[in-house]
Amino acid sequence: MLQESTKALAQAKNFAALTTLFGDGRPQTNVMWVDADDEHILVNTEVHRRKYQNVRRDPRVSITVIDATNPYHYVEIRGRVVDEVRGDAARAHIDELSTKYTGAPYANPIVSERVILKIAAERELTH
Q: What is the pTM of this model?
């Protein structure tokens, strides 16, 4: 179960920095739209993207959600991708995220397939 403060930051209109690992251990960080349910941090990507390929090979991630109203307030979540959701649910979720961040459904072309990555927190550090 996520801390309420973590969940609140992830469900608000705040950006996150998701770090995944290449096969040789080098980190890759992407700025992402973010969401949360009661138990997981949620990010939505496409299956052809490098970040997805990275977590399929090594599910360990770090994600930092930054408060848009005060960038000195943020939460860092260290954990693992423990599940994924594809299909209509993932497609609907990217529209929800786009509406949250831009005010309109997702307009970019989808190249492969949308996927929601469910991240289970092993450690939550709030600053």
A: 0.96
